[in-house]
Amino acid sequence: MTRLLSPLPPWHRHAGAQLFRLQGIDRSAIGSPMLYLAASEGTAWNAGDSGVRLRADDWLGSGTLRNSFYVEPWARLSHARELALVVEAEGSLRVRVMRASRGRAAEVLREMHIDSPRRARTTLMLGSLSALPENSRLFWHVDAIDGACVHEAAWCTRDRPRERTGLAVLMRTFGRTGDLQALLAGFAGSAQTDPHHAECLARTEFWVLDASPGAEASWADAARLGLNLRVMAGPNLGGGGNASHLIHHFLTHCDAAPDTAPDEVLILDDDLLLSMESLARYVAACTYRAQEHVSSLPVLMKSRPTQVWEDGGFWGRLNFQAHGEFGRRRNLFPHLLKHGLSLEGFEHLDDFGPLNPCEYATFIFFGLSLATLRRIGLPAAFFLRGDDIEYSLRAQALGVPVITNPNLAAWHEPGHSYGQEYMAILHAVVINLTHSDSGAAELSRWFEQRMSEHGSIDDLEGMSLYLRVLDTLLDADSAVLTPGFERHYLAALPGCNAPRMAALPQADRERMEREAASSGVLMLPFLYPGHQAAASAHRSVVLVNPGAGTYRELAPVDPAERLALMERYVNALRRLVAGFSALQARWHERLAASGQPAFWAEVAARHEHHTRLLYEGGFERPADRPPARDAGSLSAEAARPHAVPIRELRERLERELSLLARLRRGETLQRRPPHPRPGASWAHWWRGLLRHTGASLKRLPSARGLLPADFDPAQYLALNADVARTGVDAATHYTQFGRAEGRRYRL
Question: What is the mean pLDDT of the chain?
């Protein structure tokens, strides 16, 4: 891998001063377009130069979740102080910078007029970040006077970034190689059209540990990505185990070459959606880091793209927003901030204004400096669930604050199953035994409540799940939190998932829920169903997993079987309470040891013959790169040949494919695809078009193996009429373009 060690170059020069980009427009529209830019009706992207074409009296605004500028992370955690807005546009327009905060209406901070017959950059200096009122959210609003085109608007600073900043992005996967590759391809594609994104990627190295079967074949064409990329194959140690296994090899590499080691680390999940602009904003934040901290971001749902399902969590101690207890008291589960918050409109945007210091951040996106990672140690040896919580609490214990940065966002889908719940509860108890001061009585009452809830509806499988947790906690010979930890999970999880849930289409499930009361059916969540004193009065009890769209009807139970299970459960609880002190000491010791480098060195030694390097390559810089330019350098801009963006190539190719398909069907067209010159053959024209587009398109994933397992071509075309009109194959379009654009492929 070849990563630049020089600082990020200036984005613009104004009045002799260099301006460095902090945040540009995020135009990816992953999830939902309403989260990106607000505009008057009829306004659309101009795909030819990635700009927005405005007619007279049209307006365009950045006051959305993805393009607001939240001040607090920059003002409190960075050394950037002087703020400016640089607008790249042409035409006649008015630009206003607005400021808003929770409980206060938006107000105009500064404004300027732009009249330029050609594309140019204009700068509006805004003063010091620290002078802005606390919890401010900034956004710009453009009004077109006689028509205009907005190409870019970037928040910049005159303060210089650190001289040397490199970022290592660590990713691990099992079974989601295609999703991970599509994410990397999206990053690479953005670098083709945005020079700042290219500069950020030149300073970023991606480390991937792929534990999927057949990983070697999946990465045979990794060079097409053109990234600083190192791919390893290894055994499946679970999401948490794979993370620490990868971190161990990464740290070993850093120790061997300390002069070229990156100084920032970002842990990413393999099935998240994240725009390149979000990654570039994080790179910029790293180059201005002024305080040791851990950084995460708001996580929204893939299935409901405007709904927040996680924005950091509290374990009680700091939970002022939910009127939590202000002492050291914690419980088994953290309270998630803004959980379920809908962003369909704009009324909740200022809830993100105050900086969110929390005790728990997710490994979906978890950023920290290399020095902080070395100080905290490695994540605990949890196969799945709870590793990020424990690691965050360990950071807090060392005085490292954990924050979520609202200038960033990602999309991820929460999932629950009996196996996942087994690991979540087991690890939550272990975490509480170390990080909580609650004793045996509270823990016992919690398990009693679980038994009461599931026992009231004769859900023996649900009760057995918690009995499995108790048995594992009481087993002194368990492999949990030992160097051979994965053996326990690989043996235990099949039994946890034995209760089979049946899939049911959403429409049928909604109908069943509507008719449940009238038909005598009691429908409950398969986890935490609550105590149901009147369950026996219902004809049947149906447990539902809403996230997976599955259900299970409970069968009649033999009373003797239920009583025998309850007896085993109570006996396990009695043993837990009687031996609580010894049990707490044992798990505290194991948990502490599993976060140490020596532990993971032993794990690596055990799997040395199954861990191997598959690919290593360096970043390929886009051939055509616009330089940073002053507002007056119009002649140089006009003379420079523009690179053709991938979006334009894609749309041009789709248009011509559609025309050719119609010609093949014998339709009479008003317009035929243009010949390159008189007398040229159609074959010659087609080869020329493929040569023209191939250089950019070949770097995007095209194999059908990258498709999601539930991809339905007919459904994809039904949901995306513009794709259907082109006649392009649905699978090819999704893998090459649709996935990166966040297109839906199912209801």
Answer: 85
What sign for the dihedral angle of Cα 374, 377, 381, 387? negative
SS3 sequence of 523-560: EEECCCCCCCCCHHHCCEEEEEECCCCEEEECCCCCHH
In whole angstroms, give the CA distance from residue 629 to residue 639.
13
Q: Tens digits of per-residue pLDDT, 338-350?
A: 888 888 888 899 9
Going by C-beta distance under 8 Å and a sequence separation of 6 or more, which residues neighbour residue 324?
Answer: 314, 316, 317, 318, 335
Contact present, 376 and 508 (Cβ < 8 Å): no
Residue type, 513: E
* Pairing between β-strand 44-46 and β-strand 204-210 as defined by DSSP bridges: unpaired
Query: What's residue 313's pLDDT?
Result: 79
What are the domain boundaries of the chain? 12-157, 439-592, 646-738
CA–CA gap between residue 152 and residue 219 (Å, rounded): 35
Contact call for residues 465 and 419 (beta carbons, < 8 A):
no
Mean pLDDT calculated for residue range 515-532? 87
pLDDT tens, residue by residue, 388-402: 999 999 999 999 999
Helix then strand then coil, % of the chain, to nearest 5: 40, 25, 40
Q: Which residue has the tokens 């087993």?
A: 475
**Residue 566: CB partners within 8 Å, gap ≥ 6?**
451, 455, 463
Element (H, E) at 637: helix 634-639
Strands in 24-81 per DSSP E: 38-39, 44-46, 51-54, 59-61, 69-70
Report which secondary-structure segment, H or E, holds 410.
strand 410-412
- CATH 1.20.1540.10 assigned to 12-157: no
Give the type of residue at 584.
Q
Residue in 556, 529, 562, 530 with CA at minimum distance from that of residue 544:
529
Encoded tokens for 631? 């507002």
